[in-house]
Amino acid sequence: METIFSKTYKYLKTLLVYQPPHTPTPFVLDDKLDKQQPNCSENGLAGPAEELQILLRHAKQLKEVLEMAAKHLKAGRFTQLTQMQTVVKKLAAIKGERSPARLAFDAVSQPDNRQVSAVLAENRALLEKLYKLPHNKDIIIRNLILPLAPPIKAILVFLDGMVDNKTLNLAVLQPLMYFSADHVRDGGTTGSLTAQIIEECLPANQINKAIDYQSVQHGINSGDTALFIDGVPEAILINTRGMVQRGVNKPTTEQTVRGSQASFSEGLRINTALIRGTLKSSELVTEILSIGKKTNTSCAIMYLESVANPLLVTELKRRIEGISTDYLGDIGSLQQFIEDHPGNLFPQALSTERPDRVGVHLAEGRVALILDGVPLAHVVPVSFFTFFHSAEDFSFKAIASTGLRILRLAAAFITLLLPSLYLAINYFHQEALPTEIALAIAGAREKVPFPALIEIVLMEFSFELIREGGLRIPGVLGATIGIVGALILGQAAVTANIVSPIVVIIIALAGLASFAIPDFQMAMAFRIIRFPMLILAATLGLVGVASGFLLLVLLLCSMKSFGMPYMLPIAPRVEGNLDVVVRGPVFQQEKRPDGLNTKDTIKQPAISREWLKEKPRGGQDKP
Question: Transmembrane stretches, by residue range (predicted)?
């Protein structure tokens, strides 16, 4: 029977004596993996032993053909010998793959560099290794037999979820299974059989041939279905893409009162079709490039061949083809890879979600970049003033559009310089203000314990927190919390004498002015540069503000956007059109921007309203 002493002893023993923990050993992600280059067994062949097995398999097939031919000859079945010609031709085509040089190359080469084999079993084995079967459940390998004479084995390879099952069943599987041997022409040779299947059997609108596994993988990963036929040293890529994508919706970041209400989607072909719907021209060229060694992300380059500078198109393609990376899934990352000044805060490509805006810039001679899976397009080259243009500028009269552009430029100066000017005047140049205003500011700051610099930095930091929090909170709740948070924080900070009311007004004006800039990247650049300007204002006063602004102007003048000076048409001074800051009437937009150096510089004749040349028809004219 346990007493209080024995219980106390056991408790102290448990407390003082070490006991091994009963919890399992925690998982640690260490660096014990073998990072050596893959050996030959990972490439599909295992050296001389596998080479010998392939040769023995080929010899066994030859032996079976000879035994069957001898059997038909003894039985007098000469018609069967005619049907065996297809088998003999297939073995003859496979013979070229059995050379020692070809086997040695396949043994040491990577799977992507391998050629499609004429042996169906070898193609299947390599596909299983490429797509990590049977662990990978996305890849589907469908066996089928083509009803020819003799029957030929084939396989269909596709990714589940990326193909349209209805198209696959009705336009691929059903025609192949009902393809009659009576329609085979030219003795069923490899080339003629493949061509006849493509021309007469498969009703898909896009069909390509692939002779290497790099092309095969790109097609399968994009949603195509690959058809491998026994005895044919090439694959047939059939367009069966049917991945579910978001439809065309209204713009969310570039909303306008007038104009188009369509925005880009994540589908590359949907986006290119939206641009073609806006710019209906046979001269509109779309080129597709692949980016990323592991992802092969498709990137579309669109331009008007008769307008765009060919040097610009060539240079853009050179930069994109010169990108060496495993993954690239965002067009902002693509911009950093190819732009002239990736370390500069100011954007060097116009980002937009509106197809109508892309069409306007393509008509001027610029080039558009569209990345698969991204609902945005980038337009290059651009100037500083392009980012202050809106999608609906040409929907209003010239005077109204010009006034709005001047307002946006004024907003950029306000968000950049207003806090710095207040700080410089408050620290060094109080005499620059009228006496009544200076006394009012001093009275408002009488009970504030912090310097003006701490006040502004504190309010700037709070404003950025509210802005970021409002963006990350989902739904309508984000905007509500942003407005309520700003009101409560501002009122509470003034009531607690942490900041003065004038600082709250200045930061609110600077924040609202940043929202008036149409481009988000340009607004972010001004917001970030505002902090170094505050430091210069706190240390050197108006001299520091002027010096910082001068350095900023020098930086902008030294920049280029894909070969075009960033501050055109001001620096360098070139012939400008009525679409920089002052927006002239639409019937006076006669020339394209001079800095683009387009093939065709004339956009419309000097008198575009040709109805002015004719006399008005009166009521006496007959219809």
Answer: 406-428, 473-492, 498-517, 529-556
